[in-house]
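JOB MANIFEST
job_type = single_chain_structure
chain_count = 1
residues = 156
[input]
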Amino acid sequence: MSAFFVSTHHIDVLVSAAIDLEAYSGPPRIERVTHHRATQVGQMLLAENLRSMLARYPRGAGTDEADGYQAAVDSYQHRFYHGVRLTAAAHAVSCYDYQSCEHDAYGTSQAKAFVEALRQAILRKMPGIDAEPWGIDSVEQAQATTIHPSRLMRPG
């Protein structure tokens, strides 16, 4: 895998979506992402992304480039974007997760908890999600989940 430092704009979109969707961040404390906490949450996400990069590319530690990234973390100020599309938020959170997972502690980090909370908030707001079956127990139900339910694709 690889890792890159996501932009502050990327973080702005994630945090804005979390505010709009009333998502939570945590641990150590589970709190709703709000305008008041937006900069703090964004700095946490950027710091986690930087940890991932330095774990993936340890020779980068202590370089001018790494110092520049740390300066971006330290100086981050959230810029709110109202009404982030669900598809854009879903893609942005997947990208962030991929770029930030390169160190061993990521799975139990506050950033990973934020990622999962935002994913769940996105799912809860998807149009039609409540009409979908919770369990799929038959061929008919499986076919009904496809774009063309009358066509059963058979391996060729």
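[summary]
Residues 38-56 form the longest helix (19 residues).
The chain has one domain: 8-131.
exit_status = 0
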